[in-house]
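Fold these two proteins, one after the other.
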Amino acid sequence: MELSEYRATFERLSKIVGPQLARNIVDQIDEERTKAKRKEAKQLAKAEQIRAMIRQELAL
């Protein structure tokens, strides 16, 4: 999560639930997004690896 987005989300949430809970929520959101990005990167790498194997098999 971009720092500006983190701050904006934190500021909005802190007005509603308080700063400590807002920080916990924003940290959790950031962690979930980071995990999703890593998972997507792994999937793309695996797909590229499969494409490379297919190209090699087809001698392209």
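Now the second one:
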Amino acid sequence: MKTDKELAVELAGDYIQAVYSRDDVKLPEHSDLKALLKAFYDAVKSLPDE
């Protein structure tokens, strides 16, 4: 089973690849990527354990 951090990184990576793979979309700044990763991690951590 994946850890919360591993799952958050995987989800964020998939999101970044989907959104920012277009030629007309500029990659976000480092601080924005860090905030995005934290948002995914916080979302994963808030899910109930079942």
